[in-house]
Amino acid sequence: MLSYQHAYHAGNLADLHKHALLAWMLAYLAAKPKPLSYLETHAGRGLYDLAAPEAEKTGEADAGITRALAENWLAADHPLRLALETVRARHGATAYPGSPLIARHFLRPGDVAHLAELHPAEHQALAEVAGFAHLHRQDGFQMAQALCPPAPRRGLLLIDPSYEVKADYEAIPRHIAKLARKWNVGVIALWYPILADSRHAPMVEALRRDHAQALISEVRFPPARPGHGMVGSGMAVLNPPYGLEAEARRIAALF
Predict the structure, then answer these.
(1) Is 200 annotated to bind ligand?
(2) Which SS3 state, helix, strand or coil, does residue 99 take?
């Protein structure tokens, strides 16, 4: 469960889907003059280089963010594009922000961030770029349960595990149900892979049953390479901000 490293997949189509919606939600929340909390259960290293050997080995970013920029999938004022431009101005033309640095772009003085990352090398790399946040080297679900409801009470929680442990699919609806009871005003966003064997389906069914007002956004795309199991990306959002459904439809139409 500590083997996954996102550097091989940064900027791919799943990241594009996930990060476009995340950036839109953060921009919406930050537009109001009330402080907010940002929590993330599986933060990764926060910053990736699309010219690094890991990224070049898979080439997944070519079909994702690189294509999206070339074909103008993101308007000049789209929140993800603004965050990406800020990160590239600071870290170079091949930099790609993970969700922590996307959040950093929108967080203001008075906002609070808590990032959990258990992988030792990823946590060390995260510490080099996430000085704006409280870092937790612990299980992300444990962190979220301990901190919710956070202060400030208004805010967003991103749950983005690697799903290396198949039991995650069964456990996540229980985690989210407990978090939602504790933090009924929080925006709780879950990313999940859509795999060819549909192992995600019972989890999504449980979320739909338990949270009838949740937004479920799914996109499909060809596997990154022959035999690759991921054929799509999903986001489930409890307490979705106003307008997110329209943005999700717009993004999905691009795939």
Answers:
(1) no
(2) helix
Q: Where are the domains of the chain?
A: 6-253
139 is in an annotated binding site: yes
Provide the 10 A C-beta neighbour count for residue 57.
10
| Mean residue pLDDT across the chain | 94
pTM for this prediction:
0.95
Q: Which residue has the tokens 């431009």?
A: 85
Q: Which residues are catalytic?
A: 160
3-state SS of the chain: helix, strand, coil percent to 5?
45, 20, 35
160 is in an annotated binding site: yes
pLDDT digits (tens, 9 = 90+) for 63-90: 999 999 999 999 999 999 999 999 999 9
Superfamily of domain 6-253: Vaccinia Virus protein VP39 (3.40.50.150)
- The partner residues of 114 in beta bridges, in order of sequence, read 39, 134
On the question of a cis peptide bond just before residue 241, with omega within 30 degrees of 0, the verdict is: no
